[in-house]
Write a structure and sequence with these properties.
With 409 residues, the protein is mainly alpha-helical. The protein has helices at 21-34, 59-69, 75-87, 119-128, 138-150, 155-170, 174-191, 205-212, 232-250, 257-271, 293-300, 305-311, 315-320, 322-334, 339-350, 358-370, 382-391; strands spanning 44-47, 52-58, 91-93, 107-110. Among the domains are: 4-191, Arc Repressor Mutant, subunit A, CATH 1.10.10; 338-409, Regulator of G-protein Signalling 4, domain 2. It contains 17 helices and 4 strands. A hairpin with a 4-residue loop joins strand 1 (44-47) and strand 2. It is elongated. Residues 380-392 have a biased composition (Polar residues). One of its GO terms (biological process) is G protein-coupled receptor signaling pathway. Residues 314-404 form the RGS domain.
């Protein structure tokens, strides 16, 4: 909501500590030479059919002046330099929002230092005037609507401010008002450029941060000719700080508590009907009631509706349930692909075997599933097969860890 008149930082509205100030000063020195009355670019008033265009010069005038006074031989280089200066708002085309230099008869005007490197007051002023050249472009209308939503509570004050500025502008001379209108438009073309154009006023956050908070390195001086080391206490303190920092990081949760709580709530809601503390089980527990229906269902190996619903939670639920494993194994046998599940179950069972039974059980699993000519051979990649071959030479509970497939596959 800041107005151009409040830009009292420096000649171009950027604080002196800005990383771009060196470039701005060089460009402003060149602009001052261009505006010199004797050796600068000739500024004239051009007569059109029904009106006059005051204080303008052509793009070809700029290119010729640069080649003559800046020791630039290549015309393309002069155009490039001029386009960069136009992009920073030091001069601008009087009839176009796109800030670039053309080597032709296009008319340009120098920007007043008042506007050298908010928007809402300016756009409001534009809407109050019924001139075709001051109509808002599409992107400006969208920006005005967005600002109106953002400053809804203060919009009456903004509108009054714009109205007051518009009244002051009407009291100015017609030619002066025309020049100021174009200069103000050029100012906002720099600071709120047309979509797709270069924005030269964006500050590099990294550069600004480095200049405001320079990184200071500590020099540790060691003397090889003495036995004392002056930097030892500092290094000890630094290492102690790092140790404390990393110890604190070990205890820090990497998940947000909101996400953890959300996951716990989701899990609890999903499994609440299977928790006997919250939901009465059906059929009832035969250990605390006289109903033995639960034992009868277990003996019949029939899958109830609630049990099948739990299998739908995930594949792990199927494998944890003996009835689910049995039903899944029957399905795989009908598809002639049950060996992978039987191998997976055998490996899981191996991990729970007493240590004295492990070597013999490892050999049995190898002979049944992985040995050459095995009756229930499974498909494993060569790398896993070679590693498993090495593992069974020293058989352990995890000898088949590399060859164990995922049952989901």
């Amino acid at each position: 909501m800041a107005q151009p008149s409040s830009c009292a930082q420096s000649s171009n509205g950027v604080a002196d500590e800005s990383p771009n100030m060196l470039v701005y000063r060089k460009m402003e020195d060149t602009i001052a030479r261009m505006q010199d009355e004797k050796s600068g670019i000739p500024i004239r008033t051009v007569k059109s059919f029904l009106s006059k265009i005051p204080s303008v010069f052509s793009g070809s005038d700029i290119v010729q002046w640069m080649q003559k006074n800046l020791n630039i031989e290549d015309q393309v280089e002069a155009l490039h330099l001029g386009t960069l200066m136009a992009a920073h708002g030091y001069f601008f085309p009087i009839s176009d929002h796109v800030l670039m230099l053309k080597d032709d008869g296009t008319f340009y005007r120098f920007q007043t230092p008042y506007f050298w490197p908010s928007n809402s007051v300016y756009l409001c002023k534009r809407t109050m005037q019924n001139k075709a050249r001051l109509e808002l472009a599409d992107y400006e209308a969208e920006s005005l609507a967005r600002l109106q939503r953002a400053f809804a509570r203060k919009w009456e004050f903004i509108f009054m401010q714009a109205e007051a500025q518009a009244k002051v502008d009407k009291k100015r001379d017609k030619i002066e008002r025309k020049i100021l209108d174009s200069q103000e438009r050029a100012f906002w073309d720099v600071h709120r450029p047309v979509p797709g154009c270069v924005n030269t006023t964006e500050a590099d956050i990294k550069k600004s941060s480095r200049m405001k908070q320079p990184h200071k390195t500590r020099k540790v001086i060691t003397h090889t000719h003495t036995h004392t080391f002056t930097g030892f206490p500092q290094i000890c303190a630094c290492l102690l700080f790092q140790i404390q920092h990393w110890q604190a990081q070990l205890d820090r949760h990497r998940l947000k508590m909101s996400k953890v709580a959300e996951s716990l709530l989701s899990f609890s809601e999903q499994y609440i009907e299977y928790d006997p503390f919250f939901t009465t089980p059906e059929p009832s527990n035969p250990w605390i009631s006289d109903d033995v229906t639960s034992w009868d269902l277990e003996a019949s190996k029939e899958a109830g509706q609630q049990r099948v619903k739990r299998w739908g939670f995930g594949f792990d639920e199927v494998l944890k349930d003996p009835v689910g494993r049995e039903q899944f194994l029957k399905f795989l046998e009908s598809e002639f692909s049950s060996e992978n599940l039987r191998f997976w179950l055998a490996v899981q069972e191996l991990k729970k075997r007493p240590i004295r039974e492990v070597p013999s059980r490892v050999q049995e699993i190898w002979d049944e599933f992985l040995a050459p000519g095995a009756p229930s051979a499974i498909n494993v990649d060569s790398r896993s097969y070679d590693k498993t071959t090495q593992n069974i030479k020293d058989p352990g509970r995890y000898a088949f860890q590399d060859a164990q497939p995922r049952p989901q596959k």
